[in-house]
Q: What sequence folds into this?
């Protein structure tokens, strides 16, 4: 079969963060990690005919990105599509997931490789995901698994655990078991164990991963600054029906022509706190009045003309991580250098 | 203020403590002018924060940073 490989701008050798806005492009044959993949596929009788690559910011934030990437893959005659491995990289994982899902929906068997913690995982279906491990040191193993899973797909089969296939179910899912002790007894035993210096727990604390802090900006007076909120502040009437809890969506609304968040024009639909004082003066959630003043006085160069918003209330960590990756990609593409997010 | 440990726990690199969950950019106990001055203080502090190099979750207390953001601020407390 003719296999097309999708990778990001970094693994394509185009460049790092400075090239993250690169639009999709295609090259004949294998590129970078694709060479080892091509060799493993060739052993199964398949040919890696082309590599499509795209910058991470573009791929994760341009609404048309997956369609454009799929079009390039189709032009190259893709009969099967393999994306990644993206490891733990959020934007790259989201891109791989969307490209594989789009290909699969278009009738081209597809897989994406990433770590189970990758925020892209929930978007892979109807394509399949292969566990790549969390970092590039697992590259060799990841490519081997991808080639095996691709070979199974090419035969019309369904790759499984043997090929490292993972599902979109959240990592660390709990299983029910019957305990001989009541919850009260177990709680006391755990407390006693803790007093003795033990670290036992029945519920593993979530791992939030690690966010590398962005480099500081040199001078706010030269910076485009965005204001964001998870306080569920939306135009009155909530036209897009943002959830008040367990949000699955985020939205952007224009600030152009506004010097203040006027009461009556915006409302918070957050379900986790009393919104009375925020609705009386929505600047208490999104500080537009002062931010605009600082733009006029030159304390910042410019205010980003939209604000991004979701409801941070019982939001699943995977969803919140996903939103964060999308927000960062969108803001970076727009040239925003600093973001101030108010949290409720 | 009570969200600060949570923000640090999930790895937010730069954190500015405020005065209440329902009004992160305000303080309804103040009169309008004083509240607006407080909001300005918060944003000035945020600008100092984004102008400061950090390597882990770092708290920038609005009471401790300079009144006017400097070109490269240094008054971070952890």
A:
């Amino acid at each position: 079969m003719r296999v097309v490989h999708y990778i990001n701008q970094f693994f394509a050798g185009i460049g790092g963060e400075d090239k993250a806005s690169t639009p999709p492009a295609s090259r004949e044959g294998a590129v970078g990690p694709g060479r080892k993949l091509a060799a493993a596929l060739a052993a199964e009788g398949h040919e890696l005919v082309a590599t499509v690559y795209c910058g991470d910011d573009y791929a994760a934030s341009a609404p048309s990105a997956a369609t454009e990437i799929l079009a390039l893959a189709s032009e190259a005659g893709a009969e099967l599509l393999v994306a990644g491995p993206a490891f733990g990289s959020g934007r790259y994982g989201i891109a791989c997931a969307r490209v594989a899902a789009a290909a699969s929906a278009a009738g081209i068997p597809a897989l994406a490789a990433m770590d189970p913690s990758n925020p892209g995982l929930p978007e892979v279906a109807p394509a399949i995901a292969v566990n790549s491990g969390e970092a590039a040191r697992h590259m060799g193993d990841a490519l081997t698994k991808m080639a095996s899973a691709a070979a199974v797909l090419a035969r019309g089969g369904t790759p499984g655990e043997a090929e490292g296939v993972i599902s979109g179910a959240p990592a660390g899912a709990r299983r029910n078991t019957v305990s001989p002790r009541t919850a009260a007894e177990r709680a006391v035993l755990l407390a006693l164990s803790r007093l003795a210096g033990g670290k036992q727990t029945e519920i593993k604390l979530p791992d939030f991963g690690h966010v590398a802090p962005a480099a500081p900006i040199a001078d706010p007076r030269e910076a485009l600054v965005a204001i964001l909120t998870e306080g569920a502040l939306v135009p009155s009437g909530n036209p897009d029906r943002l959830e008040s809890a367990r949000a699955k969506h985020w939205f952007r609304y224009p600030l152009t022509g506004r010097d203040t968040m006027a009461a009556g024009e915006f409302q918070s639909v957050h379900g986790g706190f009393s919104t009375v004082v925020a609705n009386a003066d929505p600047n208490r959630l999104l500080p537009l009045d002062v931010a605009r003043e600082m733009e006029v006085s030159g304390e910042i160069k410019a205010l980003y003309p939209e604000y991004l918003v979701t409801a941070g209330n019982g939001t699943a960590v995977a969803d919140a991580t996903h939103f964060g990756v999308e927000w960062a990609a969108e803001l970076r593409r727009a040239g925003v250098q600093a973001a101030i997010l108010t949290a409720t | 203020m009570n969200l600060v440990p949570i923000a640090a726990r999930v790895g937010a690199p730069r954190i500015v403590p405020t005065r209440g969950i329902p009004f992160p950019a305000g303080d309804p106990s103040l009169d309008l002018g004083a509240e607006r001055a407080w909001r300005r203080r918060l944003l000035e502090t945020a600008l100092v924060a984004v102008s400061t190099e950090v390597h882990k979750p770092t708290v920038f207390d609005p009471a401790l940073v300079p009144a006017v953001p400097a070109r490269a601020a240094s008054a971070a407390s952890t």
Q: What stands out?
A: Confidence is low (pLDDT under 50) at residues 69-78 of chain B.
